[in-house]
Amino acid sequence: MVANSTSIDQADADAVKAAGWTDEALYDAITVCALFQFYNNWIDATGVSDMPDIGYEASGRRLASHGYWMESPPVSADQSAVNPQPTAMR
Predict the structure, then answer these.
(1) Which long-range contacts (CB under 8 A, 24 or more apart) does 11-19 make?
(2) How far apart are CA 82 and CA 90, in angstroms?
(3) Is the dihedral of CA 25, 26, 27, 30 positive or negative?
(4) Alpha-carbon distance 4 to 1, whole Å?
(5) 84 φ, ψ to 5°?
């Protein structure tokens, strides 16, 4: 997908669906691949440096213990009017 995204066609989608994938799972996989390609291109073009090893270690520990989702602290009614949070973060 990264080298030639236009080479993906209906036969590819049918093959992964036959293997048990849902439309949503296929969409999510394509989206993740596309985003990683974008981020890698952006990092390469801007010269952003890599994290030090300790950053990866800390991130790995956090993901292992909490996963990708982190609960936001509760927001009181008066705070939500001033600083509303996106629905996904509530």
Answers:
(1) none
(2) 15
(3) positive
(4) 5
(5) -65, 145
DSSP string of 12-78, one letter each residue = HHHHHHHTT--HHHHHHHHHHHHHHHHHHHHHHHHTPPPPPHHHHHHHHHHHHHH-S--PPPP--HH
Quote the distance between the C-alpha of residue 23 and its chain's center: 17
Structure tokens at 22: 């849902």
Sequential pLDDT tens for the chain (90 residues): 777 888 889 999 999 999 999 999 999 999 999 999 999 999 999 988 888 999 999 999 999 998 877 677 777 766 655 555 554 443
Q: Pull the structure tokens for residue 65.
A: 């213990």
